Amino acid sequence: AQSVTQLDSQVPVFEEAPVELRCNYSSSVSVYLFWYVQYPNQGLQLLLKYLSGSTLVKGINGFEAEFNKSQTSFHLRKPSVHISDTAEYFCAVSPAAGGGATNKLIFGTGTLLAVQP
Amino acid sequence: KAGVTQTPRYLIKTRGQQVTLSCSPISGHRSVSWYQQTPGQGLQFLFEYFSETQRNKGNFPGRFSGRQFSNSRSEMNVSTLELGDSALYLCASSLATGSEQYFGPGTRLTVT
Q1: Rounded to a whole number, what is the distance in angstroms from the first to the last CA of chain A?
Q2: Could you give the 3-state DSSP secondary structure of residue B34?
C-alpha cells in the first residue's frame, strides 16, 4: 500500500519570493510521483510528474520538483511565485509498472499556497 | 481537442435517493478513474475502468458503483444517498497506465 504526507496544510508567501511545498511518501513498491494544482471550483491540473530518469523534474508555470528516493520525498519548488499561483497543491503517487497495472492515485491532504502582495 | 466533461456540474438530492453521474473522457482515452473529494477525507479513489473492465476499486461501500461503455464514457451511481456523500466527484481519463491523467471539472453533489 502507498501513502502520501503533506505536512504543511497552508503556506503563506509574499509575491516574488521562493516557495517549497513538501511531500513525503511511503510505498513497498516503486511508484510514479505527481503534483497537481486545483484552483477554486475547478478540477485538478497536472503540474509535473516523475516516472523514471532524471530526479529533477520541470513542470508547467515554472514549477519543478526533485525526487529523493533515500528520503522518500518529492518536494515542489518555485523560485518566484505570483499572485496567480494561489491554489491548493496536491502530491500523489501511483504504483509503477510492475507494481500493478493501475492509474489509481493516492493523494496527500493538500497544501494551500497563499501568495500575498 | 475537447477535455474531460462531466455532467451534471451541480446536483442536489435528498437522503435516500439515488444519483447517476456521467463522465466523457478525452477522445481516444480508454482509462477512466473516479475520485471523491471532501473537506474531511480529501481526495479518495473510487474506481478505475479500462476498456469496459473495472481494474481497481477503492474502499467504498457497495452503494457506490460504476461502469464504462464501449465508447469509454463512464457513469457512477450512488444508491441510498447519505448526507456524508455530499462531495465533489472528479473523473479523470488517460491513454494508458502511467500516462498523464486529465481531470474534469467535477460534479458537486449536495445531499440534504
Answers
A1: 41
A2: strand
pLDDT in tens, chain A (117 residues): 889 999 999 999 999 999 999 999 999 888 899 999 999 888 999 999 998 889 999 999 999 999 999 999 999 999 999 999 999 999 999 888 765 567 899 999 999 999 999
By DSSP bridging, strand B5-7 and strand B31-38 are: unpaired
The phi and psi torsions of A78 (rounded to 5 degrees) equal -145, 130
Residues 53-72 of B with CB under 8 A from A: 55-56, 58
Residue A73 · residue A85 · CB < 8 Å: no
**CB distance from B10 to chain A under 8 Å?**
no
List pLDDT tens digits, range B64-85: 999 999 999 999 999 999 999 9
Specify the amino acid at residue A58. Answer: K
Q: Within the 45-104 window of chain A, which residues sit less than 8 Å (CB to CB) from chain B? A: 45-46, 49, 51, 90, 92, 94, 96-97, 101-104
Q: Is B4 on the interface with A (CB under 8 A)?
A: yes
Question: Any CB–CB contact under 8 A between A114 and chain B?
Answer: no
By CB neighbour count within 10 A (0-12 exposed, 13-18 middle, 19+ buried), where does A60 fall?
exposed
Per residue in A31-49, is it b (16+ CB within 10 Å) or e — as a string?
bbbbbbbbeeeebbebbbb
